[in-house]
């Protein structure tokens, strides 16, 4: 699918312009005690003219044919590119945590590490930090998420390949 940069795009968003739009696809995950799993994912990056992108990601458990059967995870937040090619990302998750990420934009590759993770008292997972990598490869959005918790050191958790919808 062809992508055009919106003519009224805030100039501060040019480094992230390739991400704008809706992406869909499938991914895999692995976590101690849960084993390996597959999921479907929808991601949307949108702008309202401000110097940030709004981000919404939804993941779904899939049946044997790859069809979504129930919600698995969701997160939303804001991507704030800076003039020095850095980016700040603020995300929140309904399972009881919020994150502040910091990273670097290098063309169509973005590396992020957590600067802070805040959890509610009843958070589903004692998540403590992570790293993410986003990139555009052959027109697709590829991403990975390595996660650490109070019980597990940083390790691969989620990875996916998404196509522009």
From TrEMBL:
It comes from the Bacteria. This is Ferric nitrobindin-like protein. A motif (GXWXGXG) lies at residues 21-27. Residues 13-164 form the THAP4-like heme-binding domain. Belongs to the nitrobindin family. SUPFAM superfamilies: Lipocalins. Pfam families: THAP4_heme-bd (PF08768).
């Amino acid at each position: 699918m062809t992508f055009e940069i919106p003519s009224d795009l805030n100039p501060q968003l040019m480094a992230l312009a390739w991400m704008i739009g809706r992406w869909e696809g499938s991914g895999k995950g692995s976590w101690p005690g849960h084993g390996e799993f597959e999921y479907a994912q929808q991601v949307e990056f949108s702008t309202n003219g401000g110097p940030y992108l709004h981000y919404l990601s939804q993941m779904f458990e899939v049946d044997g044919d790859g069809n979504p059967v129930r919600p698995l995870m969701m997160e939303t937040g804001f991507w704030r590119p800076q003039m020095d090619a850095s980016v700040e990302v603020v995300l929140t998750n309904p399972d009881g945590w919020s994150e502040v990420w910091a990273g670097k934009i290098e063309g169509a590759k973005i590396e992020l590490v957590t600067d802070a993770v805040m959890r509610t008292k009843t958070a589903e997972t004692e998540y403590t930090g992570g790293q993410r990598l986003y990139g555009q490869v052959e027109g697709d959005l590829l991403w990975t998420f390595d996660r650490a918790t109070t019980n597990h050191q940083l390790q691969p958790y989620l990875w996916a390949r998404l196509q522009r919808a």
